[in-house]
Design brief:
Blueprint: H1 2-23, H2 26-32, H3 44-48, H4 51-70, H5 75-87, H6 92-97, H7 100-113, H8 115-127, H9 133-137, H10 139-156, H11 165-199, E1 202-203, E2 222-232, E3 238-247, E4 250-255, E5 265-272, E6 276-279, E7 298-303, E8 316-320, H12 324-334, E9 346-348, E10 356-359, E11 378-385, E12 389-394, E13 400-404, E14 419-421
Parallel strand pairs: 1-5, 10-14
Antiparallel strand pairs: 2-3, 2-8, 3-4, 4-5, 6-7, 7-8, 9-11, 10-11, 11-12, 12-13
Helix pairs in contact: 1-4, 1-10, 4-5, 5-11, 7-8, 10-11
Length: 423
């Protein structure tokens, strides 16, 4: 526990240096302001995120750790100190970490595009013995990611039969969950910016009835993307280079149709994830040129769209990947997922594949972990249990919980239809 205290003191001093040398410098804040013609671009608040909240949490944490060591250090006193931080305060790191990649990218770009800003930071960093601004800003993420390791050391020093050990184990598990979420949110933020960059290159006209942008859904991100060849064996042989983007909820196909502008991609097809099927076996027709058709790199991609019969000729593609390894990667991510559960009595659904159910009448919470539903309210089922209950999230995402679940019709009707839940 002493190592947590001393390392938090060191971390706190680094945050104080960041505050004194940069955050409290009005000139630094002015440099972070967007240019006059930069309407809509991030300013100081967006770039620095909730750093003030992070510094406040660290100060409180150091103060409470100091008070702990001025008294008697016991397992109950340690868990009593850590619990409110893990349950509530440390979640602020999730918000901060989701912004770190954007933060680092903007500052790097500003230094590159603004020589005065670069000189300003260079002077500051020389006075700090070479420590740069970005190394200070990344410290909160490094700190929270180190916390599970520090708590593991505390656990090792706690006897197995100590009655307060389970509370300490729960705190360690909570910190691990926070760190996992921090990393996941940072990754999603980075992927989202990649999506925005790709979006600028794409023409959505041909699929505008179902999609007009990539970033319109907050929970959509790229699972896999790449360039492949679409093969056509009718009326001779033809190979067309196409772009594939597999998102969490759909697959989008595009091609460069304008030979004068290779940077612009016209999106030609869109298919929900649940409409995708893949077949690995491929037999080359007689007219296939052997040097251009590599059967070990090929799979069939079938797309079933709304209102279209299964395996319509308009949604059937022969896809050739650059290598057998790439074919296998595409084949794996395009296959319907199978989520294994440790509990044989529950079914877990992928986020994009969850059933939707509707409450037939008002369900009032009977227990703390229940989800209250109004009549007609929609619930997205994340898990379904064999005892007639399900775990879901209310349609707007405001709350999660358990509700009674009596489904009618097919068990996995997706977003095109809504099942009825007799709550």
């Amino acid at each position: 526990m002493y190592e947590i205290y001393t390392s938090e003191q060191t971390y706190r001093k680094s945050l104080e240096t960041l505050e004194k040398q940069f955050l409290n410098d009005n000139l630094f804040v002015c440099y972070l302001e967007p240019e006059e013609d930069g309407e809509g671009l991030p300013g100081p608040e967006e770039i620095l995120g909730n750093i003030d909240e992070i510094m406040s949490i660290s100060k409180r944490f150091v103060d409470e750790l100091r008070s702990l060591y001025e008294g008697q250090v016991t397992v109950p006193s340690v868990t009593g100190l850590l619990k409110p931080f893990v349950d509530h305060l440390f979640t602020a790191y999730i918000t901060y970490c989701s912004n770190t990649s954007l933060q680092q990218e903007i500052i790097t770009q500003k230094r590159k595009n603004d020589p005065e800003f670069d000189m300003f930071l260079d002077g500051k960093e020389k006075a700090l013995m070479g420590q740069n601004l970005q190394s200070f800003l990344i410290m909160p993420m490094q700190r929270i990611c180190r916390m599970p390791l520090l708590l593991s050391a505390v656990l090792k020093q706690t006897e197995e039969d100590n009655p307060d050990r389970p509370s300490l184990v729960a705190i360690h598990k909570g910190v691990c969950t926070i760190v996992q979420t921090c990393n996941e949110e940072a990754r999603k933020s980075e992927v989202r910016r990649d999506m925005e960059a790709v979006e600028l290159r794409c023409d959505f006209t041909k699929i505008s009835d179902v999609m007009t942008n990539f970033t319109g859904k907050a929970d959509r991100y790229i699972v896999k993307e790449g360039v492949v060849m679409k093969l056509n064996f009718k009326s001779g042989f033809k190979a067309i280079k196409i772009h594939l983007w597999l998102f969490t909820d759909c697959l989008v196909i595009g091609a460069t149709l304008d030979p004068k502008d290779q940077s612009k991609i016209t999106l030609t097809e869109h298919c929900p994830r649940q409409g995708i099927t893949v077949v690995g076996h491929f037999t080359a027709p007689r007219n296939a040129p052997k040097k251009k058709v590599m059967t070990e790199n090929i799979f069939h991609l079938n797309l079933k769209k709304a209102g279209q019969p299964a395996y319509s000729k308009h949604g059937r593609h022969v896809i050739q990947c650059p290598s057998p390894q790439e074919r296998q990667k595409w084949f794996e991510v395009l296959k319907p997922p199978v989520i294994e559960s440790e509990n044989p009595e529950e079914t877990i659904y992928e986020e994009w594949d969850v059933p939707l159910v509707k409450a037939q009448h008002h369900y009032t919470k009977a227990n703390e972990d229940d989800l209250e539903l109004l009549e007609g309210e929609v619930c997205r089922v994340l898990k379904k249990y064999t005892d007639g209950w399900c775990y879901g999230v209310e349609g707007t995402g405001r709350a999660k919980g358990v509700v009674p679940n009596v489904l009618h019709g097919r068990d996995t009707i997706r977003s095109r239809k809504i099942q009825r839940c007799q709550a």
